[in-house]
From TrEMBL:
This is [histone H3]-lysine(4) N-methyltransferase. Its main location: nucleus. Its EC number is 2.1.1.364. Keywords: Chromatin regulator, Metal-binding, Methyltransferase, Nucleus, Repeat, S-adenosyl-L-methionine, Transcription, Transcription regulation, Transferase, Zinc, Zinc-finger. GO terms for cellular component: MLL3/4 complex. SMART domains: FYRN. Residues 168-276 form the PHD-type domain. It catalyses: L-lysyl(4)-[histone H3] + S-adenosyl-L-methionine = N(6)-methyl-L-lysyl(4)-[histone H3] + S-adenosyl-L-homocysteine + H(+). It is an enzyme of class 2 (transferase). InterPro entries: EPHD (IPR034732), FYrich_N (IPR003888), Znf_RING/FYVE/PHD (IPR013083).
Length: 400
């Protein structure tokens, strides 16, 4: 083996072919370590080296000034080659795997692929919001008013007054309870003590007519005749609306005449289905709402006298918002002090009225009015009955 020594400015470089061969043998041993755990001695091989001095590039190194070298550090010991291979072959203890799902792109046609990419502004992100409206198949039944009221009652979003008690008043003609529809029997009118009639039931009776002031005349006469007449539609007593055709005996209740499709005219006449003209008529009346002031003409003096004569009343007499409970009485020795030029003040009189509250602007309460005796003079007492508060009693010597 030949060694080549180059000398340049007191620097020696020794190139040995034997060292090169030794390094190559070490590399081969490192590469074969993972296959065999034991270190095998490499076999002997013949190597040929060609040393070409002319191809070596020799540079002249500059002379450096001598410096005080720091104290020498202890030599660093490197592990042998096979130990380094073992360290490299050690499996990783922690592994983090990140999977990125590819973004789905719907390919509809080749034209969409040629579109230029949309602009992406710096520092902003675009989001797409998609709305899907699902309409169920089949017929949809809208909720009725009762279901809506029940739902709003559960939510507690509405303010409703206390439920009104059922109206048990009956019409003397059609025998239906409570006020009727505006475009129908309409409201109830008081005929006598605890006797009520629907406005249109009385107005469309044959004997009844209306004055210019709005009073209905002969209502009692029509009621007496209706007690003996049977309706052609429902076969019940109380029918007073007859057909205007001569010699026609068909007679109906007002509500039954509407159900039987009778024809009403503006001159307050009616024709039954057998005699009504075919098609429409110029004078035909199709709307029965009455918004004008209409009342039953009656003898109020006789009606009040009947109230006083009854010792124990089982009926309630009401005029507007005033409910009459008891009329009271006056003894001969009280006549001088318990009356005025316009009114009487009987002891024991009692009535109640529904009127606006003194505490709340949008509420009504009950005022119970009565007359008592104190020191030989009348004492007027008003008892305010309001829910959520104690009863308030107000007294004075005059009704004002």
């Amino acid at each position: 083996m030949k060694d080549i020594v180059f000398c340049s400015n007191n620097c020696f470089v020794l190139y040995s072919a034997a060292v090169q061969a030794k390094n190559s043998e070490n590399k081969e041993s490192v590469l074969t370590l993972p296959q065999s755990p034991m270190k095998e001695r490499p076999p002997k091989a013949f190597h040929q080296y060609s040393n070409n001095i002319s191809t070596l590039d020799v540079h002249c190194l500059p002379q450096l000034q001598e410096k005080v070298s720091p104290p020498s550090s202890p030599p660093i010991m490197f592990p042998p080659a096979f130990e380094a291979a073992k360290v490299e072959a050690k499996p990783d203890e922690l592994k983090v795997t990140v999977k990125l799902k590819p973004r789905l792109k719907a390919i509809h046609s080749s034209l969409e692929d040629c579109r230029p990419p949309s602009k992406k502004w710096k520092g902003m992100k675009w989001k797409k919001w998609s709305i899907q409206i699902v309409i169920p198949k089949g017929s949809f039944k809208p909720p009725c008013e009762e279901e809506i009221d029940e739902f709003l009652k559960k939510l507690g979003t509405t303010l409703k007054p206390d439920p009104v008690p059922k109206d048990y008043r009956k019409c003397c003609f059609c025998h239906e309870e409570g006020d009727g529809l505006t475009d129908g029997p309409a409201r109830l009118l008081n005929l006598d003590l605890d006797l009520w009639v629907h406005l249109n039931c009385a107005l469309w009776s044959t004997e009844v007519y209306e004055t210019q002031a709005g009073a209905l005349i002969n209502v009692e006469l029509a009621l007496r005749r209706g007690l003996q007449m049977k309706c052609m539609f429902c076969h019940k007593m109380g029918a007073t609306s007859g057909c205007h055709r001569l010699r026609c005996t068909n007679i109906y209740h007002f509500t039954c005449a509407i159900k039987a499709q009778c024809m009403f005219f503006k001159d307050k006449t009616m024709l039954c289905p057998m005699h009504k003209p075919k098609g429409t008529h110029e004078q035909e009346l199709s709307y029965f709402a009455v918004f004008r002031r209409v009342y039953v003409q009656r003898d109020e003096v006789r009606q009040i006298a009947s109230i006083v004569q009854r010792g124990e009343r089982d009926h309630t007499f009401r005029v507007g918002s005033l409910i009459f409970h008891a009329v009271g009485q006056l003894l001969p020795q009280q006549m001088q002090a318990f009356h005025s030029s316009k009114a009487l003040f009987p002891v024991g009189y009692e009535a109640s009225r529904l009127y606006w509250s003194m505490r709340y602007a949008n509420r009504r309460c009950r005022y119970l009015c009565s007359i008592e005796e104190k020191d030989g003079l009348p004492l007027f007492v008003i008892k305010v009955v309001e829910q959520g508060h104690e009863d308030l009693i107000l007294t004075d010597t005059t009704p004002k």
